[in-house]
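User: quick one, fold this
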Amino acid sequence: MSYDPLLEELAEYVLNAPIESELAYQTAQLALADSLACAFEALGQPECTKLLAPPLPLPLSVGSKLPGTPWVLDPVQGTFSLGAMIRWLDYNDTWLAREWGHPSDNFAPLLVVADLQSRLKRARGEPPHRVREVLTLAIKAYEIQGVLSLGTALNRVGLDHVHFVKVASAATTTALLGGGREEVLSALSNAWIDGAALRTYRHHPNTGSRKSWAAADASSRAVRLAYLALRGEMGYPSALSAPQWGFEDAVLRGERIRLERPLGSYVMENVLFKVAFPAEFHGQTAVEAALRLHLQVRGRENDVERIRLETQESAIRIIDKRGPLKNPADRDHSLQFMTAAALVFGELRYEHYLEPLALDPRIEALRERIEVVENPEFSRDYLDPEKRSIANALQIFFNDGTSTERVLIEYPLGHRRRRQEALPLLREKLRQALLKVFPGGRSERLFHLLQSPDLPDWPVDHLMDTLHGA
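Assistant:
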């Protein structure tokens, strides 16, 4: 049966394309460790942990082990729970293009399903999955989500980027389960025609905590579709192109989905890490600029006349927020709030989005004085494949007529151009996250394991055993 060419290309890539880039594998292991660091950090947030247990907690004799907790879960709930942990603090890696997203959202289904399948394989006397298989499929999931994002802007029709997570996770999870061409195409086509979430929970006036579990919901749905495909559930060959009723006509208003570049390992090699502070990525360089200016503002907050913040067009559409901010989800997606908080405190932690710190009157005073303007050069360089910068420039003007220097930062700390600079800080991020969940000696052993060149050879279930419990 002939499917839409794009679906055929995605299936062929997932099932048969070799990944030969050593840089991609090194970055994938770094991304895995960073994703787990984000997950462990999130275990300190009650609003996250209340979502992790299944609706009806039932004991499982065989299931997927949820890192950092005592839970053993079915693969759908396990994917949702781990996905929510990874994403909760807005601290996991990022990809910016015409569409935006967080490719590490795909790690949850791959880890959870590989863990369960490894346990089932052992029970049958078969060899378990190795971590390297997870890394290979993660590279491919990153690539599918990221390259789709280069060419298609779901945000332009009000949809959330997590739809691309569902597509990427459906294809790679089905392959992990042993599916062939027909099964992968079934899962892919069902993912495309599945309901796509609206972005309204990321924007005024509805910004809320769903943005922290939306990707978990999408990836857990992908796991369900993968298992259905393995049971022989039919696919839909023209899910994208069917006149009137296909995704392109019904959702994209006639725009054709396209891949801007050949599928390989480009996205993993160039993914953006959040290194020093949890904040929406379009504002990361603004926060870094604010930290550089902190000492010039400290104690003079009342003397500030105005703050000029130059940014890219995408940042203006997503995180240019004035008016009341109702909750942490609102604040960590406000360019003005994150910049003002960094100016006031000289740092930016998730706690700054929570009350009472978020109600510090100095933040609000500075936030009201920030004027956000688009710099067309920043917008061009943001989409330039040779640059892919995420620039912001910040300058503060005081009532006495003086001003600070204009601080321009083109590339955030987690950008590939600053990767070496970021590595020590990423390691420290991992170390501190582990210490919050595991005793000192155990956290140190896990710290070295997650960075070890031997990790790819580890059985996945043994890794998850090591990460289980608290």
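User: anything notable?
Assistant: DSSP finds 20 helices and eight strands in the chain.
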